[in-house]
Amino acid sequence: MEKRFTLKINKAVFRDTIMNIQSQADDNVHIANAISAMLLIDGREIRYRNTDLFYDTFMDICQQHHINVVPYEETRDDRSIYKVVIEVNGLESHSMSFKGKEKDITTALAAALYKVLGTQVQNNLFIDDVKNNRI
User: What is the pTM of this model?
Assistant: First the structure.
């Protein structure tokens, strides 16, 4: 039997993790710049604003790229296992399992989402380049 649960996320740590990943994106500067551009509101960066706004904006960007986070609880042999699945276009792309639903998975989730989003952005940029005969 499966049921949903609410993730324990520290939004300030989430923001800081994403910013740290972007600052170390030496080999994927183009992708980091594209994601940074998506984090703008009215042309101004939201990085140092409200952490809720940053988190919500990042999650909205993920949804726009068909990335969803699905947390659920499975019961096996009278034990609960908590699983977080990252879906891309409705298919499982990444998953994490843990024993307690109170576990803070902020850093792992932020890193996994950034990686998946980076792949989606790279794919979209490639498709745009092909459509516009830039390749």
Answer: 0.87
